[in-house]
Amino acid sequence: MVEKKQTYIYTFTCHEDELSLCQLEMRSLFGFHTEANILESSVRIDPSRSPFIKERIDVIYKANRLDELVQHVSGFKVEKPFKVIVIEHTHTTVQKIGFEGRRKIEREIGLQLSGQVDLQKPNLLFAVIKGRNHWFFGIYTKSESIWLSHQKKPNHYSTALSTRVARAVVNIAVPTIADKKVIDPCCGAGTVMIEALSMGIDIEGSDLNPLVTQPARENIAYFGYKGKVTLRDIRDVTEIYDVAIIDMPYNLCSVLEPEVQLEMLQNARKFSGKVVVITIETIDSLIERAGFIIADRCVAKKGSFTRQILVCH
């Protein structure tokens, strides 16, 4: 007998300026992206990892029609006080259910379940959602915007990545966390490190600027995380890492000649097999000269300001 594989439904939300970044994060986490804001996968991701995932449904039943789903859930035993919610999303091919329609479905499904309903303080949330071709019922997990709290760090720099972009970049760089050793060798104020540490990723940082290493340590400690930050040029890194996240310096105090950028990338090639490069200028030729192949890419926009994010192997 073939065991049925567990599937999950995720919904996403992002601004149009973030679509390219959101889709690269999808490809990194799930192996593909969708043009819709709903995705079905056998990959289980904590929805709070992503700044774009709104929720996850651990699918219990899947049906072609709503009446079939009602039949499937009939008599399903629930041990804890529960509540059923219907998730509305904005897929263009899915007809809107509307408020009254959602309440009707919630009552209809809830009455089929065997257990105690608690609409105020349920111990367990179930969700019903309509995809493009199927209806789904399962356990509901809502995403928490952990990255939002990280905006309130004590030390800020105007050129730093936003916590939202930094969190997506970490997911792109380290989609599977276990047994990965990561470095941020141009860590600045530690924005990327904080997001990675909050996910339980083994990351350390370094920077050649003595004015940012101590503030980075303070920022990390402020949120109760522990991460090593050293004063060091990326060209002096000798340890071996699984992944490096390199936000190329670009402000007025850090104008780098192409030769220096190439040296940075060449040494990164020695200490890491995978590098995610964040740059405001096109440096494809330098990346390739350093021995990397650009496997995937996106742009992250904020108004007229654009960053390129390159996944290199």
- Main sheet specs: 7 strands, mixed
Strand order of the largest sheet: 9-8-7-10-11-13-12
Query: Given the C-alpha coordinates, what overall shape results?
Result: elongated
> If helices are DSSP runs of H or I spanning 4 or more residues, what is the number of helices?
9
The residue ranges in which pLDDT falls below 50 over 5 or more consecutive positions are none
Count of DSSP strands: 13
Considering DSSP H and I runs of 4 or more, what fraction of the residues is helical?
A: 25-40%
Rg calc: 22 Å
Share in β-strands: 25-35%
Average residue pLDDT: 94
The SSE order reads: EHEEHEHEEHHEHEHEEHEHEE
**What class do helices, strands and sheet pairing give?**
alpha/beta
N/C terminus separation = 40 Å
Set out the fold topology.
Blueprint: E1 8-12, H1 19-30, E2 38-41, E3 53-63, H2 66-73, E4 82-87, H3 99-112, E5 124-130, E6 135-142, H4 146-149, H5 163-173, E7 181-184, H6 191-198, E8 202-207, H7 210-222, E9 229-231, E10 241-247, H8 258-271, E11 272-279, H9 284-289, E12 294-302, E13 305-312
Parallel strand pairs: 4-5, 7-8, 7-10, 8-9, 10-11
Antiparallel strand pairs: 1-2, 1-3, 3-6, 5-6, 11-13, 12-13
Brief summary of the model shown:
By secondary structure, the chain is of the alpha/beta class. The chain has helices spanning 19-30, 66-73, 99-112, 146-149, 163-173, 191-198, 210-222, 258-271, 284-289; strands spanning 8-12, 38-41, 53-63, 82-87, 124-130, 135-142, 181-184, 202-207, 229-231, 241-247, 272-279, 294-302, 305-312.
